[in-house]
Inverse folding.
């Protein structure tokens, strides 16, 4: 057997490896519903914020939350987060997951009920990456 380093893998090679992993995982994850969802904050027909997430099984997996600099401090991020959480709950989600770099928005999420589960230090170099979760059901 030989091993080959590829420092610039093309999409075809990436998709071949991804396809192999999906084929392996399918029997374990088959039937679990997955979809993408987004909310946008609009002003005068322009996006001034947005949140993109996956709904996967019982989980809301937040991928991106962005608010334009001109809208910061106006509760746009809070509204987007609340809206997507409410939608996720209506679709049967019971938990939410977000990751955020140390220079981004960890305190923002913590103020909204998210709890830090894990931190990767020195990620990718001199920052940290925090993983936060929140229960979407009342305890």
């Amino acid at each position: 057997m030989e091993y080959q380093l590829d420092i610039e893998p093309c999409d075809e090679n990436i998709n071949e490896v991804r396809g192999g992993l999906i084929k392996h995982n399918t029997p374990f994850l088959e039937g679990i519903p997955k979809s993408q969802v987004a909310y946008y904050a609009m002003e005068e027909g322009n996006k001034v914020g947005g949140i993109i997430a996956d709904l996967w099984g019982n989980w809301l997996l937040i991928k991106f939350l962005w608010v334009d600099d001109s809208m910061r401090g106006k509760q746009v991020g809070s509204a987007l987060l609340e809206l997507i959480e409410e939608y996720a709950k209506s679709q049967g989600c019971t938990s939410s997951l977000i990751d955020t770099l140390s220079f981004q928005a960890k305190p923002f999420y913590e103020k909204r009920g998210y709890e830090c589960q894990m931190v990767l230090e020195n990620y990718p170099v001199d920052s940290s990456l925090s993983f936060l979760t929140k229960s979407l059901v009342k305890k």
In short: The first helix runs from residue 11 to 29.
